[in-house]
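Hi V.,

Quick status before I head out on leave. The structure for the redesign project is tokenized and pasted below; the design run finished overnight.
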């Protein structure tokens, strides 16, 4: 489904996006340049689908039925910039490794956790992490652990509900209210919860607007 994009966000979201790098360790991070927006969430929360819907490209971020497939920090930027000198993209989107996949080997989980925390703590160009929560389940214990990790790293984050088309419409405001209550006393949480459906295109313009505002690109 094609979503309507306003003229305000066309310079970023109205052009093609490209994958530039998968980062398995900090030493492989691209040089700090464009401001970065990262997406975190449990495996199978719909991260790749949301990123694809956000930029209007079905095949940009790889989607998989196999939980835990994303094991790197995957970088995406708008196309049309050389990446050198003054010709840097205005921003980058970063798909973070999914968490909460019970079958992943312990050493893999530990390596992912270290990579994520080092990135959160040491990346000056990272502006905000959008933590995706499956609306069918709400904020679970492993989500709480990640929110605490973000608080510890003093990294600004915002909750985004996914797959709202899978629950009754009347339940969305209640879930937003419940999520707000759970983050109310968290120091790094942005005090607004967004709701989305990648499949139906709901809430994508609100998320785009929030991202553009975060990186200072709003009109």
């Amino acid at each position: 489904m094609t979503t309507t994009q306003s003229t305000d966000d066309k310079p970023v979201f109205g052009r093609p996006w490209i994958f530039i790098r998968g980062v398995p360790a900090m030493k492989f991070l691209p040089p700090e340049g464009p401001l970065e927006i990262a997406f975190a969430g449990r495996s199978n929360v719909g991260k790749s689908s949301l990123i694809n819907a956000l930029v209007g490209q079905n095949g940009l971020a790889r989607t998989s039925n196999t939980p835990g497939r994303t094991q790197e920090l995957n970088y995406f930027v708008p196309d049309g910039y050389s990446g050198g000198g003054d010709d840097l993209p205005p921003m980058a989107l970063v798909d973070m490794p999914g968490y909460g996949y019970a079958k992943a080997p312990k050493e893999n989980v530990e390596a992912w956790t270290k990579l994520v925390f080092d990135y959160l703590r040491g990346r000056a160009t990272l502006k905000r992490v959008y933590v995706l929560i499956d609306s069918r389940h709400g904020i679970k214990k492993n989500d709480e652990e990640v929110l605490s990790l973000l608080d510890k790293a003093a990294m600004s984050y915002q909750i985004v509900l996914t797959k709202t088309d899978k629950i009754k419409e009347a339940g969305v405001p209640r879930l937003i209210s419940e999520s707000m209550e759970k983050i109310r006393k968290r120091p790094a949480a942005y005090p607004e919860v967004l709701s989305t459906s990648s499949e139906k295109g709901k809430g994508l313009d609100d998320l785009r607007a929030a991202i553009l505002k975060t990186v200072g690109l709003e009109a």
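Above is the designed sequence. Residues 106-122 form the longest helix (17 residues).

G. will cover questions while I'm gone.

Best,
W.
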